[in-house]
Amino acid sequence: MHTVGTKVQRVDAVAKVRGQAKYVDDLSTENMLVAKVFRSTVANGWVKSIDVSKAKALPGVELVVTYEDVPRIPFTTAGHPWSLDPEKQDVADRLLLTQRIRFYGDEIAAVVAVDELTAKKALELIEVEYEEYEPILTVEDALKEGATELHEGTGNILKKTEWQVGDLEAAFAKADCVFEDEFVTSRVQHCHLENQISFAYQESDGRIVVVSSTQIPHIVRRVVAQALGIPWGKVKVIKPYIGGGFGNRQDVVQEPLNAFLATLTGGRPVKLEYSREENFTTTRTRHPIHFKIRTGVMKDGTIVARDLEAISPIGGYASHGHAIVANAGTKYRSLYSQEAIRYKGTTVYTTTPVTGAMRAYGIPQVKFALESHIEDIARAIGMDPIAFREKNLVKEGWVDPISGNRVNSNGIRECIKRGRELIRWDEKKAQLKNQTGPKRRGLGMACFSYNSGTYPLFEIAGARIVLNQDGSVQLQIGATEIGQGADTTLGQIAAEAMGIPFDKVHVISTQDTDVTPFDTGAYASRQTYVSGMAVKKAGEEVKAKILERAHRMTDIPLQALDVVNGWVVWAHSGEQVMSVEEVAMDSYYNELTAAPITADVSNNCRVNSFSFGCTFVEVEVDMPLGKVEILEIYNVHDSGKIVNPLLAEGQVHGGVSMGIGYALSEQLLLDQKTGRPLNGNLLDYKLGTIMDTPDIGVAFVETYEPTGPFGAKALGEPPAITPAPAIRNAILDATGVKFNELPMNPQRLVEKFKAAGLI
Amino acid sequence: MFDTGNIFEAHSVKEAIELLRSNPGAKLICGGTDVLIQVREGRLAGVDLVSIHQLPELTGVTMEADGTIVIGPATSFTHLAKDPLIKKHLPFLGQAVELVGGPQVRNVGTIGGNVCNGATSADSASTLFALNAKLRIANSRGERVVPIQEFYLGPGKVALGQDDILTAILISREDYEGFGGYYIKYAMRKAMDIATLGCVVLCKVKDKKILEDVRLAFGVAAPTPIRVPAAEAVAKGQVFSEELVEQFGKAALTEVNPRTSWRASREFRLQLVEELSKRALRQAFSNAGGEC
Fold first, then answer.
1. Is residue B292 part of a domain?
2. Residue A436, Cβ neighbours under 10 Å: how many?
3. Which of A244, A273, A302 corresponds to the end of one domain?
């Protein structure tokens, strides 16, 4: 009986539906103090003077600290694994609190009080005087002569990367046609349901405990210790259930400050919970990127040369910084083949909200540019846009010339075929010719490729399994459940590897860095593929130990035995020999040989695999009102073997809805004079509601990925990638108007339709 | 955690007036969907509140002997939309308030609060303007009736004194009998949003084709909800036609003067004014029994 590939119920379903699942705030204790951050109301400058005496005097205020009181230790907040190579370490450009202000909302001081209201009132009593500079809101502002430097000696450039494969100019020279264009993507926010929250306290032995809504507990532990300048072992991080992450919690946003405050309260816990407004503008956002793209094509539709430049205003601090713009280049490379290709990526400091990891890490941006551009080329050379893509898409066996990663399974062509059938592409294309009137329909599609984890970057994962007396197990994993269902799919992989029923696997959802195996966390669509490898390895080790003991108990040769559905069986016939429970009891209580069965494994994953997929969409555009209605949308994915089809479908629903918001409505706006966020709240930032979300069709083309656990590849982030370019191409199909800037919101549509004489 | 002062629960309008009078600066709260936002934002930090939540004498819809429909201001949007009198005589008002926020907001938010909050974007307000609604207001000195056009003074400003309470919204028979109508809420989302532009057309149709009476009102086209007499005059007494619809849309532009803000440009708002006027007229004509 197989568990992998079945729709088992997610392990936390009942607890979450009943409201029994514990989140950070549910774990609050009595006598907990509340912290609030005092933030700058200018975007660029220095604090000339600060007076906290009135705030300190307010009854109920326990503590007020400013930039003068914190350790002068620069640290990084990026949720990347540590590197022993200083060259590869993230930029350490933060202090716990700052005198130098680098964006509107930068953190100057913090208040700790008996309750939230008192803390808020204390913030209003802090008096501050600024030396104010011109805000730097764009790349142009940042790089112009005489611009103030946000970080000394940088010239406001965080990093530039450039790579090239093949002879680019020769390939362009050979091309029959060369197409050039520009694309611009917008600043958006994750909007996870639970705002950023943590609480911290110091134990009597001096160790600091941080309970946090994070995706990366082991990295939080390291960063807290680094920021405070204390040994890493002095910090313990606990991660309970969390209300969504989407990358925003792959960043150590508030825990170091909170841990620092907790060292000053005599052991009383301190809670720090951001408001929705703080969450929007002072945590992390998606990188807006400006692309210049150039492609050389032969008359028959063969792509010969590709060139892309990307430049991004990353905000006041590096955070994940350049890694995201670099990743955009990597994934630009891995969808189509050509003779020569080049990429240039630049990241620039600006006094805007800090950018960081967000679902698919630079790829919704680059695929918007690429897949819009590819559509335009196909139309320009008079070729069917699907045929044009099919001609140039990478094939099985393709090896990335820079990373060395190899395509071992590739279902992209089948995905396209399936999407085309589901939306009835050919039939509708014929019907939609020669439309007139104010409302017009169109079809669009877009493709993506993605990776499973970050290799050739560092990919370590850990799992621990303990076999109980009754034949059930506890499974502990270092990767985290963030709503995506990792606990369930990893539980399925464990059950499959051991040959025991899924309901015998008790997944320990909470991570506690004191006892949880080391794993860098939930990000990069790595849990099923990378952490799954560790879980499979642990499961196989437990199974081997069960078989070994059963062999010794029965003298049946080892190779003749297997474990199936909780029983040790004759491998050739399936005949039951003894239950796993019987073996387990022997392992615990055999007076001569007792040695309870456990496995504690680490897996250093030194391989990667490519996920593929596409979006097909039909829209109706109401031109006089600038509204786009999605009539049908399908996402078709090759994520290898699907471990849990129901959870996989849910993952796609969430990603597509995120992609639709990215396409049509979401954008964090800043006042162009002051850099103040204009719409950092859920009313003015147009995150779609369920009423705005169409029925989302989902299909999987199941390939077998030989490197993945039971054939699985990544699915977490990919669903969010292609909705935006597919919708853009459908609007083009409907109206003939190209939109090269996100979001494609009503005002932009009306402006362009007017300019095109359509209304 | 909300920063409020004292919270008084009134058991009658009389008591509520007395509480407002004796607690200067106290603010009336009913459903709380606007007041609590202002408390959270700090605009009403520390405010004393007098609650008239679900006060029976302010709740429900009735009809007086002369046919006047009396809407209790503490009636929630949900109850209003389901009320038999509203469904029969003012279905377009029910349709408008069903577009407020989301179900949770509509279950507690009230039509009286919608009006007294003074926002130009209030989904009920433009329809009440088109209906020539009158507002009955009580205080410690007695009662008065004010036309809704005179009640709105500016953004967030209405003609209410410290101990004034809106006790009824009145719609006269001649303002609703025979009218069909349609409200369009143009927003960036289908729920949980505030209108970029609200547009309502009410009309009375004779012989299935003549627009005997036409009323056009907007929310968000000006600092307060407005009527557009110039457009009404163009259509009144005319036979319905697509040419008339076009003229109506153009005429609507003559009395609005929207501004460019980060939410929307002037040009975009003008486009919506013209287009929504036309669409609302077509649908209202049909709802009033007109046939093309």
1. no
2. 6
3. A273
Residue B31 lies in a domain: yes
* Residue at which a domain ends, from A548, A573, A604: A604
For residue B1, is pLDDT > 90? no
CB A496 within 8 A of CB A710: yes
Among B174, B199, B219, identify where a domain stops. B174
Measure the CA angle with vertex B78, ends B73 and B80; round to 5°.
Answer: 45
ipTM value for the complex: 0.96
Asked, for residue A179, whether it belongs to a domain, the answer is no
* Most A-contacting residue of B38, B41, B189 (CB-CB within 10 A), to test interface: B189
Which residues 6+ apart lie within 8 Å of A338 measured at CB? A166, A171, A303, A304, A305, A306, A392
Q: pLDDT tens, A282-337?
A: 999 999 999 999 999 999 999 999 999 999 999 999 999 899 999 999 999 999 99
Q: Domain check: are B238 and B279 in the same one?
A: yes
Residues B97 and B190 in one domain: no
pLDDT for the residue B194: 97
Predicted pLDDT of residue A29? 87
Within this chain, do residues A312 and A345 fall inside the same structural domain, yes or no?
Answer: yes
Mean pLDDT of all residues in A415-441: 97
Q: What is the pTM of this model?
A: 0.98
Q: Closest to B264 (Cβ–Cβ): which among A689, A692, A747?
A: A747
Domain residue limits at A477: 13-17+460-604
CB count in 10 Å sphere of residue B13: 17
CB contact under 8 A, B262 and A679: yes
| Residues of A in Cβ contact (< 8 Å) with B262 | 669, 671, 678-679
Give A462's pLDDT tier (boundaries 50, 70, 90): very high
Check CB contact under 8 Å for B268 and A689: no
Q: Are B132 and B30 in contact (CB under 8 A)?
A: no
- Are residues A443 and A731 in contact, defined by beta-carbon separation less than 8 angstroms? no
Nearest by CB to residue B268, choosing from A116, A688, A747, is A747
The domain that contains A242 carries what CATH number?
3.90.1170.50
Q: Tell me what pLDDT residue B292 has.
A: 83
B102 and chain A in contact, CB less than 8 A: yes
